[in-house]
Amino acid sequence: MIRRSRLVRDVCLGLALLVTAAGCGGGSKSSSSTASSQASADFDFGANSSRKATAFGDSITFGFLDQKRRDFRLTTSNNYPNILQGQLRSLDPAWRVINRGVGGEHSGEGAARFGSILRIDQPGFVLILEGTNDAHQCMDSRALTNNLASMVRAAQANKTIPIIGTIPPSFRNNPCADDIIAEANANIHSLAAASNVVVAEIFDGMNQRDLFGISPDRDPIHPNEQGYRVMADIWFQAMMQAAPGGLTAALRKR
């Protein structure tokens, strides 16, 4: 009876967090998946930890704030990996989220270091958010998609569950970047559908100017602290969709 009560309590807590995540950001959706995107309850993580996630990406993953503060080398501990770890630990204290963000990274550079990070971290999940720097330098969206696809394949071969984030919106006046982001995000959805991978819908969930640097002299690419909280909510919901057997099964394995 005590075990059953605990499970009911934890499921209710998890659902409450999901409802909170769905209400943030003002976008039309925060994550997307198909029925086959959820791993089976007996998913084989191999030597990886089923309670470890690697957050992989550029300065947005690392936790840079907007340009004015970044010039003073200020970052925030309120980055999305830290917030996400707190959310997951409210369900199970064993969770750990490792921040593997590298400022200024292009997707090709990310793809080159991806395998070594998987070997070092041995994560059950990897959260991939790359492409902002590619877009703002008008790089080829097809090459970006190919780099993401190579990361997905490497994760799946490593028995790690990959989740791909769409590229966040940019509020700079950069039409080329906007075009690349739109093309790449469409390709990300196609890649995810073909690979049975959950998408964290960062673009739609964060398509609000006030989630980024808000003063005229600030760079509207990096989220502000509220933006990072919204981003963490989106990743949390995507992880619960991708978790083997779903939320209830994940909570049962404690």
Identify the notable features of this structure and list them briefly.
single chain, 254 residues, alpha/beta, Rossmann fold, globular, disordered N terminus
CATH superfamily: SGNH hydrolase
Poorly predicted sequence stretches spanning 5 or more consecutive residues: 1-29
Trace the largest sheet across and list its strands: 1-6-5-4-2-3
The overall number of domains is 1
* CATH T-level topology: Rossmann fold
Tell me which CATH architecture applies here: 3-Layer(aba) Sandwich
SSE topology sketch:
Elements: H1 2-22, E1 31-32, E2 49-57, H2 59-62, H3 67-70, H4 80-89, E3 96-101, H5 107-121, E4 123-129, H6 132-136, H7 141-157, E5 161-165, H8 175-195, E6 198-200, H9 202-205, H10 225-242, H11 246-252
Parallel strand pairs: 2-3, 2-4, 4-5, 5-6
Antiparallel strand pairs: 1-6
Briefly summarize what is shown.
The protein is built from eleven helices and six strands. It is an alpha/beta fold and 254 residues long.
Description of the molecule:
The chain is α/β, with parallel strands linked by helices. It has one domain (2-252): SGNH hydrolase (Rossmann fold, 3-Layer(aba) Sandwich), CATH 3.40.50. It contains eleven helices and six strands. Strands 1-6-5-4-2-3 form a six-stranded mixed sheet, with helices on both faces.
